[in-house]
Amino acid sequence: MEAPANKFGLTFHHMGLALRKEDEALKFLGGLGYDENEQVYDPEQKVYLRLCTSKMSPAVELVTAGEEDGPLTPILKRYNELVYHTCYETNDLQGSLQAMQLDGLRVVPVSPPKPAILFGGRNVSFYTVMGFGLIEILEP
Known about the structure:
Layout: E1 11-19, H1 23-31, E2 35-36, E3 40-42, E4 47-53, E5 59-65, H2 73-78, E6 81-89, H3 93-102, E7 107-115, E8 123-129, E9 133-138
Parallel strand pairs: 1-5, 6-9
Antiparallel strand pairs: 1-6, 2-4, 3-4, 4-5, 7-8, 8-9
């Protein structure tokens, strides 16, 4: 990760797309030239995850529900598919959160840092930035 050129110390990583089924999304992303990585199950989040990457476009994380209720359950009751979060990397989680709050943003914790299988055990946490939406923060 390069040093971010912003006051929050965040670098864009990917957008998260919640889906009931990923077949059509994979077809569309494939047509755009994306590479699809292996799907993994994350028991901490109770979801299946697949990161699709492209040299020309932002990464897209496909997120489908697991067998038990999890964070996608309310979203997928209402939508078949929805871009529901953006993910940013930081080298200093507390510094990034503090910088957003000092700038007058209301940042509400949703899920504390926990290891993410999709990212090799790196910690991820989720926050609602009021007036913007749900963000995921990926630590080193």
